[in-house]
Structures are given as C-alpha cells and as structure tokens.
Amino acid sequence: MVAMDEDNVRFPDVEWREHWPVDRSVSALVVSLIFALLFLVLAALLFGMVPFDAGWIPVIGACGGALLMLGAASAFIGKLSWLVRRRDSGVRGHVDTSHGPGIRLVIGHSNQIIGLCALAGCALYGLCAWLDWKTGGSYLLPLSKSDRAGATWILVLASAAAVIGVLLAIAFRWMITVEIYPDGVARKTALPFGRSREEFIPWDDIRALRSASFSAYNSSPPMVEVEYSGTGVEPRNKVFDRPGVLGLPVHLVRCDINSFLSIMQYLKDHSRARSLLAHPDAPQWFLRVERSGRKAGRKAGQIRDIEGDEE
Questions:
Q1: How far apart are CA 51 and CA 49, in angstroms?
Q2: 271 contact partners, CB below 8 Å, separation of at least 6
Q3: Where are the transmembrane segments (predicted)?
Q4: pTM confidence score
Q5: Residue 161's pLDDT is what?
Q6: How many whole angstroms separate alpha carbon 42 and alpha carbon 44?
Q7: Of 163, 90, 92, whose CA–CA distance to 122 is shortest?
C-alpha cells in the first residue's frame, strides 16, 4: 500500500522496526511517575525548609536546589514521551548547495536546557550552602553546621557541576547534524568561527545501516552506524567512527529514531524512493511511520504485561 498527498506523490508504507527497544510496561510507567513525584516533593521541601526572611543566601540556595530537583523530575517525565502523540515529525526540509533538496533531523534543545538548568541548580545550591555554613547558618546544611568536611564536599560538588555545565554549554554550540538527500547521507559538524565539516556517503557506497550506541558519561546514547565502501570518507571522530563505519549520533534529535532508521533501511533497498526526500511533504512521511510504530509499540507493551501476569 502507498499513501498519497495532494500532489499525488506516492509515499510508500515502511515497516516500522523498534531498533532501540523502550520499556512500555505498566511497571515502567509507575516507576517513572513515582520518581518524578518524589523529586517534585523534594523540590517543594527545599522551598519549605527556608523561610523568606532567612536572608538572600539561603533563599537563593533553596531555589537552586529546587531547580535541580525539578530537572531530575523532568528527566523521568521525559521517559514517558511515548505516551504523547506528536504532531511534529522532528524532520525539516533542507536545501544544500551541493546536494540539493533533502531533509535534516532537528536537534531538540529541551533536554539540553533541562540538563543545564539542573547543573546550574546544583552549582547554585552547593555554593550557597557553603556560604551559608561559612556565615554560621544551617538552613541548607542542617547536619553540617559544625562539620567542615560536609561543607567542603558540597563546595567541591558545586564546582564540578559548574565546570561540567560550562563544558556542555560550549559543546552544544558545536552540534552534529544529520541530513539525508536523494544522492546520499551527510553528517555535518559545526566548528568554531562559523566553519563546518562534512562527511558524505553516497547511497551506492552504503553496505549496511544498523542501530548502535556509543559510550558517554556512563551511558549508551543511540547512534546509527553507516557501513560503507568505495568512498573517500575517512573516520575522523574517535567516539562515533571506526574504519569503514561512519556514526550518526541521534540521541539529541527530535524525530523518532526508530522511524528514521526504518526509513533509511528502506531507502537503501529501494533506490527509486530516494527522490521522495526532495518532496516538501517528506517530513509528514516520517510522522506517519512514527505513528504506525507507536501503535505497534503499545501492542507489544500490552503483550509483555499479559505475559508477566501469566507467569
């Protein structure tokens, strides 16, 4: 079957595959909600334990601690994004001077902002807690009024959070974008002073497309591996690349990464469909594949819950 838009352009139905599984069970939903509520309660407690007449240092410190807890709560709420039906595919049409019209994956800044706010809150709370202890107060560190070690450790934690926040803010300015065109796949890296670097692989040189992950800060963010041959591209990024394989980091994009890889694998095997990437309605194609995948994912989650009950 095919779907048709107003211009009678045929967009094929692509089989959605869950390359990066998500736990959609009721237990995972309950756990995420419990932790989100817990951090929201902790944020309220931080406000409640410091009166407004305690001085500007404890009040600002309590605001920083609450900001940290709100960031943690938002992270757990973000795990439930699969429950919400989106209207935005997270894909935009893009015209490149060399490759012509195609699509670009939009970088989602909400997670970056939440992370930076949480780090800022941690740094602010730690600094104010140390200053409060230094001036003889005990609002932010009630157990460390006479404990120099506790106050010192909280200052070290605040300093580490501030440094990490600054480094991440700088790194976010030099983002990696992923673009696909009728003639190939491009990875573009923003560099200082308005420069950029591009690695481009033609479709005919792509041997395989597969899901993968890379190691970063004790986590494994998702990545698409593009195995290629017969091209002049050399691996430049030690985190993503290896000989004969180009890594496309997709952990920050707004689109559904399972839909993205499913469509890419379809285009690899169906060369005539690649021209659809130049059509203005191509982003809606990605959204339609995502919605079909959400239905399949919910059914899979229900099946897992039923099997768990039977056991």
A1: 7
A2: 203
A3: 26-50, 56-77, 113-133, 153-172
A4: 0.78
A5: 93
A6: 5
A7: 163
Contact, 4 vs 44, CB < 8 A?
no
CA-CA distance, 224 to 275, in Å (whole number)? Answer: 22
Are 199 and 210 in contact by the 8 Å Cβ rule? The answer is no
Structure tokens at 12: 């094929």
- CA 71-38-217 angle, to 5 degrees, is 45
Give 83-108 as a DSSP string.
GS--S--SEEEEEETTTEEEEEEPBP
Q: What percent of the chain has pLDDT over 70?
A: 87
Q: Which two tokens stand for residue 241?
A: 């690349």
pLDDT digits (tens, 9 = 90+) for 179-211: 999 999 999 988 777 778 889 999 999 999 999
Two structure tokens written together for 298: 């919910």
Helix (H) or strand (E) holding 139: none
Q: Are strands 196-202 and 206-213 parallel, antiparallel or unpaired?
A: unpaired
The CA-atom distances, in angstroms, between 30 and each of 25, 36, 44, 76, 269 are 9, 10, 21, 11, 40
User: What's the mean pLDDT in 225-242?
Assistant: 81
Q: Which two tokens stand for residue 74?
A: 């938002």
d(CA 223, CA 250): 5
Distance between start and end Cα atoms, the chain: 39
Q: Whole-angstrom Cα distance, residue 21 to residue 297?
A: 9
Greatest extent of the chain over all pairs of C-alpha atoms, in Å: 76
Closest residue by Cα to residue 187 from 277, 99, 59: 99
